[in-house]
Design goal:
The chain is an alpha+beta fold and 367 residues long. Helices cover 28% and strands 31% of the residues. It has 2 domains: 183 residues, 2-Layer Sandwich (Ribosomal Protein S5, domain 2), CATH 3.30.230.10; 115 residues, Roll (Pdz3 Domain). Strand 18 and strand 19 form a beta hairpin. Helix 8 packs across helix 9.
């Protein structure tokens, strides 16, 4: 009886005792075409089956870790430090994933339209917050993931480097007024921004004074610190209204799949030659394909979905190839143009837009 009690207490304790680990396990392969809605541009009634692939990410207790370690074969373990920048709490993971998906959708729209010959104007709009460090001026001021800073003390901020420059000569413990367009995520991950508001904030001493930055014009950070991780805010003027319904899916790795689906939707013929394909990989507005995580686990999901071809970033090719069966063709890629060329090799049509690209006319939708 005593041994049983000890075992029960041990199991309960292990279940409740959280770790710093997360598990990445196979998710789903989802056909993107039904998620796309287009207004103002011609579309092809025939839609190829192009699938985005996701994985499940879950925090682990010690009991869950032991179980997965012993009994599950297709699982990758990562630490919180691999998922987040230093000082940013895990409570922001969900919002960060939704922001990455929002950015990925925008990049997919721009890359697809540009691949079809459209000129898509861009405008630098501010510095978007991707993370807020705990117990810092930013957290105390109520700033959050998705907010966009557009000015400091009335001086325009157009990018993350512009924000760094506005703080270059600001002493710690200085009161500033930020102009912020608040970002808000719906329960399913849709980002909307409200009207600009003024937010007072008092700077703190930077924990890494004179640390290096990614800004050529401001190679080192100033003495003050807000406690945020920023990215460039960019507004694009699109020649129509394009909506992608990726409810409850976060992260940037569906970028390539969304781009190809939009090209297929907006052009004549079959982009894939009738083949069922799956893809994973980030996309940027210039059409560059970037690496992702969980390639092996995504390959399992692709196999279950019955895809014939799986396009993956070149850096993830080895992991995907080592997991794939002989019937799945894994193709490593680094750019959208390379993917389109590879699709033509397997019978896909060169994309010809339904709506002929024209010079932008204002006003147009901005995303």
């Amino acid at each position: 009886m005593t041994a049983l009690v000890v075992l029960v207490v041990l199991v309960v304790g292990l279940r409740a005792w959280s770790t710093n680990l997360y598990a990445i396990t196979p998710g789903n392969a989802t056909n993107v075409a039904p998620l796309v809605s287009v207004k103002g541009l011609g579309t092809d009634p025939h839609r190829d089956r192009i699938m985005l692939v996701d994985v499940y990410l879950q925090p682990l207790s010690h009991l869950q870790y032991l179980y997965m370690k012993l009994f599950e074969s297709h699982v990758e373990f990562v630490t919180a430090s691999q998922l987040l920048e230093p000082g940013i709490p895990t409570s922001q993971l969900l919002a960060q994933g939704f922001l990455q998906m929002s950015d990925s959708q925008t990049a997919a729209k721009v890359a697809a339209l540009r691949a079809l010959g459209w000129k898509v104007p861009a405008r630098a709009s501010g510095a978007v917050i991707t993370g807020v460090v705990d117990n810092t001026p930013a957290s105390r001021a109520g700033l959050s993931v998705g907010d966009e800073i557009t000015a400091v003390n009335g001086r325009a901020v157009t990018s993350q480097c512009s924000l760094v420059g506005s703080l270059e000569h600001v002493a710690p413990n200085t009161k500033l007024t930020l102009t912020v367009e608040p970002g808000k995520f719906s329960a399913t991950g849709v980002l909307t921004r409200g009207r600009a508001v003024a937010i007072g904030i008092t700077t703190a001493t930077s924990p890494n004074a004179s640390s290096a930055t990614d800004c050529a014009q401001f190679p080192t950070a100033g003495p003050s610190w807000l406690g945020i991780a920023p990215e460039d805010g960019v507004a694009y003027t699109l020649p129509g209204s394009i909506t992608l319904n990726t409810a409850n899916i976060g992260g940037p790795s569906a970028g390539l799949a969304m781009t190809l689906t939009l090209i297929d939707t907006l052009s004549r013929g079959s982009l894939t030659g009738g083949h069922v394909i799956a893809t994973t990989g980030t996309i940027d507005p210039q059409g560059n394909v970037g690496a992702i995580g969980g390639a092996a686990e995504k390959t399992i999901a692709v196999e279950k979905a019955g895809a014939h071809y799986f396009f993956v970033p070149q850096g993830d090719y080895a992991a995907a190839k080592s997991t794939a069966s002989a019937s799945l063709h894994v193709i490593g890629v680094s750019s959208l143009s390379q993917v389109l060329a590879d699709l033509r090799k397997i019978g896909g049509a060169a994309p010809v837009p339904y709506s002929a690209p024209t010079k932008p006319k204002f006003p147009l939708s901005t995303a």
